[in-house]
Design goal:
The complex is a heterotrimer of chains A (294), B (300) and C (295). Chain A has 294 residues and is mostly helical. Chain A has ten helices and no strands. With 300 residues, chain B is α/β, with parallel strands linked by helices. Classes of the chains: A mainly alpha (294), B alpha/beta (300), C mainly alpha (295).
């Protein structure tokens, strides 16, 4: 009887625990959207921020966040994929592999502020780029690369070995097998993992304070000449992102409507991450169905 | 693959990366390309702003670029230390600072040329619930060194004094310490790294005392008189109220080219009479007193 | 011939990419250490003064006694806040992990799992911002103090590390062989007894890994903590006191200081401590998972 009672109480405890976590999540989401959603409109999303007056938007910051994400992904996706291929297909036990695994673990557990400082030293000062999108993208790559390697290694490993063997028996080399047989089947996993990793990159701030900088020059969105300093595409201009902007106006902001801008920016940030999460699942499932159906 | 080949490969990739990094370096500093014949300015300069000055310089840079469409003034945030470091290394054309370069450890101030753009006044601020309106310098020192810990010790309500300091590197703190506390080391209090937060906390914490640049002061907090002198524009202009600091823009060597044009623009009536007062700064062109790096004040 | 060429170059390129990870790690360790050691080598600060000293006057002129860089309050602050966060987060995380694997797998899969992923996806600045605008005023008005406190810091952190601990613990619980559970039921144990006496002890090494990963995330978190803990360099006496951590000191002071000055160098030394701590955490995890294999 006593054991029964304990069991019942324990079951209750587990439900309560799960309830608490759900409550925290819903509280966070509801709080963010309740305060932020009514701020979001086309004007807020496209107009530049104000320095001392009310009514500023987050246009350049919003653009910078996406552009920085794209630059980061351009760097980490190929490198991460290839490294994942090596680890899953070619690597055998040995000291080099051990070193690679240890490095991945180290990079994963590095605090992002430390990565930011490394970026300040190497990508900002040593290259002479100053605070720039490029420096920020490289710093984010350091954070994102270990994740991408792990995602692609896992996705590739999860492909059943029979398909590989079939390909080998037809005389294909390992490289051909990887590209023609393994990667297509690993695609859903790669895409889901990649998009979720992208969400992390999108919200990162600590690594960007001293790499991409805390200012955003006036952008001329009709100027698509990549070498021009006012062009939004120029990778060597300073670029404050949404996450950094939230931090900055909360600490040094002179605008009277800090709450409004910060609430709106936080809602946008969370909304984008949510979209990434949901679309990753959906896209992964969609591609999987396409691949298995045809 | 043999181990040797592997290591060779690793070496190659290290080399390739180094070369890549070195190769694409430094497109940032196009320097001051100035066409001396044509009247139209062109080229680009970089200014690294102290947090306090970023809004002013950004606004001014935008206006400057509107007038000279071929000019790019790139403003980078990052703090006064970063600004001074970068300008003395030649990585930026202008470095902004809210204290004299001479006061920062590790900077060779002799190679930097100073342009004093404006003056910022700082006030002692307290929570609105504190009934005290005026403090003497000695009282202020006693409060901030921890000798006086309750407001009733000089006529206020029976309430604990909550000390709120800015972070140690902040220009506001350095100025306040030098001119309001005569350089006495403050007792350990809460340290807040930004003016916005200081304002919020002072407004919401009963018995709180801190100091803020005048631009941050509004109805939510109360500014105290110091020795009966109100911290306001005219008292600073004629030197009656001592707690103020210049906002400096430093260049390496005398300003030249585009940097010079931009600094001249900062000192022009257009900026000094509109933007500067709008942000609650005092135009440096209006000042009737001058102060040097050692803190010596001379009448102009 | 062509086939062979493609095969070899493909292998080489993919190896280069994998080796890049090593290169990056070495570069980070090298640069952070070079800057971090200069406090001790260039400025001649003794290790004892830096790690155990409590006095922090990084720019005091010689006439007033010269500079002092004792980082003990920062180290202590980081340890207090992150350990408290782990103490709060661990029981809840393990409860949720067991819930997802043992109590209600269906629910767990469909609702809790995505919820955890979302929690993990919320940017740390947003956590900090909500802490600042909800938790800090709440503590100030309901409990006391001025709100910016250890309490606010570790509560924010404990939510942030929930997903880390939960997902690692869930994985390790799922990996347990099903027979163990069945054997326990066959012996007449209740579900709670099975969980408490069989499953949790068996998954111990995985749980430890999760906890250490959570600790390491809490220890290295910068902005969210910096926004809510008040940043005061003083040994705290209660959880309502403000405190300062290594990460918040770095974020606050890095921009103010001149490259190469003692103050700047000591900030780099703090970054080096963060780096050393992450190595330390990795060591613990490796040790724990080795022990786990033997059992």
């Amino acid at each position: 009887m006593n054991a029964r009672l304990a069991d019942k109480l324990a079951t209750l405890m587990f439900w309560v625990g799960a309830g608490i976590v759900l409550f925290i999540l819903f509280f966070l989401l509801i709080y963010i959207f309740l305060h932020g959603l009514n701020t979001i409109n086309w004007h807020f999303l496209t107009s530049p921020p104000q320095t001392i007056r009310v009514g500023g938007g987050i246009g350049p910051q919003f653009f910078n966040s996406f552009y920085l994400l794209i630059l980061t992904m351009l760097i980490t996706a190929p490198v991460g994929l290839l490294a994942g291929i090596y680890l899953a297909e070619y690597a055998r036990q040995g000291r080099t592999i051990e070193a690679i695994r240890l490095s991945i673990e180290t990079l994963t557990s590095l605090p992002s502020i430390v990565v930011g400082l490394f970026g300040l030293l190497v990508f900002v000062n040593m290259t002479g780029w100053g605070y720039s999108l490029m420096s920020g993208a490289l710093a984010l790559s350091v954070i994102n690369l270990p994740l991408m390697v792990r995602i692609s290694e896992e996705a590739i490993r999860s492909v059943p070995s029979e398909s590989r063997e079939a390909s080998f028996s037809l005389g294909a080399t390992r490289w051909q097998t990887v590209w023609r047989v393994v990667l297509p089947s690993a695609l859903p996993g790669l895409i889901t993992g990649g998009i979720i990793a992208a969400g992390r990159v999108f919200g990162e701030a600590a690594a960007l304070l001293y790499t991409a900088g805390m200012s955003s020059p006036n952008l001329n969105f009709s100027n698509w000449n990549i070498t021009d300093p006012t062009s939004p595409l120029n990778p060597f201009r300073p670029a404050e992102t949404l996450a950094v902007h939230i931090w900055k106006i909360n600490s040094e902001g002179l605008i009277p409507d800090i709450r409004r801008v910060a609430d709106g920016a936080a809602a946008v940030l969370v909304l984008v991450v949510l979209t990434f999460n949901i679309s990753a699942r959906w896209l992964g499932r969609y591609i999987y169905r396409r691949l298995t159906a045809t | 693959m043999s181990r040797k080949v592997k290591w060779l490969l690793a070496l190659c990739c290290v080399l390739a990366l180094t070369i890549a990094l070195a190769g694409c370096g430094a497109p940032q500093q196009t320097g001051q390309k100035e066409d001396s014949k044509a009247t139209e300015l062109s080229g680009s300069i970089t200014a690294v702003a102290s947090t306090a000055m970023q809004p002013l310089v950004e606004e001014a840079a935008n206006k400057f670029m509107e007038k000279n469409p071929k000019v790019q003034v790139s403003i980078q945030g990052g703090g006064s230390g970063t600004g001074l470091t970068q300008v003395s290394q030649g990585a930026a054309n202008i470095g902004n600072s809210d204290i004299f370069a001479e006061e920062k450890e590790g900077i060779n101030a002799t190679q930097l040329a100073d342009t004093k753009v404006c003056v910022v006044g700082m006030a002692t601020v307290v929570n609105p619930g504190v009934t005290v309106d005026n403090v003497t310098k000695q009282q202020l020192i006693d409060i901030f060194t921890g000798k006086i810990t309750n407001w009733k010790q000089f006529g206020g309500p029976d309430q604990k004094i909550v000390l709120i300091n800015r972070a140690k590197g902040s220009g506001t703190r350095a100025t306040f310490k030098k001119f309001a506390l005569d350089g006495k080391e403050e007792a350990v209090g809460m340290e807040i790294d930004s003016s916005g937060q200081v304002k919020k906390i002072v407004a919401e914490t009963p018995g709180a005392i801190s100091y803020l640049a005048l631009s941050y002061i509004d109805k939510s907090i109360k500014a105290l008189k110091l020795e009966g002198v109100e911290p306001a524009g005219e008292n600073i202009v004629n030197g009656k109220y001592p707690v103020w600091a210049y906002q400096h823009m430093y260049t390496k060597g005398e300003p030249a080219g585009l940097a010079k044009e931009f600094l001249q623009y900062m000192l022009s009536d257009e900026v000094q009479n509109t933007l500067v007062p709008e942000m609650d700064y005092i135009p440096s062109t209006k000042m009737k007193v001058e102060r040097d790096a050692q803190g010596k004040v001379t009448q102009l | 011939m062509h086939k062979k060429y493609v095969e070899i170059s493909g292998r080489m390129i993919s190896f280069t990419c994998a080796a890049l990870v090593i290169f990056l790690t070495v570069a980070i360790v090298y640069f952070i250490s070079v800057k971090g050691f200069s406090t001790f080598i260039v400025n001649g600060v003794s290790l004892k003064e830096f790690f155990l000293g409590t006095e922090w006057w990084p720019d005091r002129p010689i006439e007033q006694g010269g500079p002092k860089v004792g980082a003990a309050p920062f180290i202590l602050g980081s340890l207090i806040v992150s350990l408290l966060a782990v103490f709060v987060s661990t029981p809840l995380s393990i409860i949720v992990a067991v819930f997802m694997t043992e109590i209600a797998p269906g629910w767990g899969q469909r609702i809790i799992q995505p919820a955890i992923e979302l929690l993990a996806g919320i940017p740390s600045v947003v956590y900090g911002y909500i802490g600042l605008s909800v938790l800090v005023p709440l503590i100030r008005n309901q409990i006391g103090g001025n709100g910016f406190s250890i309490l606010a810091g570790f509560l924010v952190l404990s939510v942030m590390i929930l997903p880390t601990i939960i997902s690692v613990s869930t994985d390790s619980l799922r990996a347990l062989p099903g027979q163990w559970k069945e054997a326990a039921f066959a012996l007449g144990s209740t579900r709670w007894q099975t969980i408490r006496l069989v499953l949790i002890p068996a998954a111990r090494s995985g749980l430890i890994t999760g906890i250490v990963l959570g600790l390491s995330r809490a220890f290295g978190e910068a902005l969210a903590v910096q926004m809510v803990i008040g940043n005061t360099r003083r040994i705290p006496t209660s959880i309502l006191d403000p405190i300062i951590t290594l990460t918040s000191a770095i974020t606050m002071d890095m921009g103010y200081t001149i490259t190469g000055s003692l103050w700047n160098n000591s900030l780099w030394s703090m970054a080096m401590i963060l780096l050393l701590m992450s190595f330390f955490f990795i060591l613990i995890i490796r040790f724990a998972s080795k022990r786990g294999v033997v059992h």
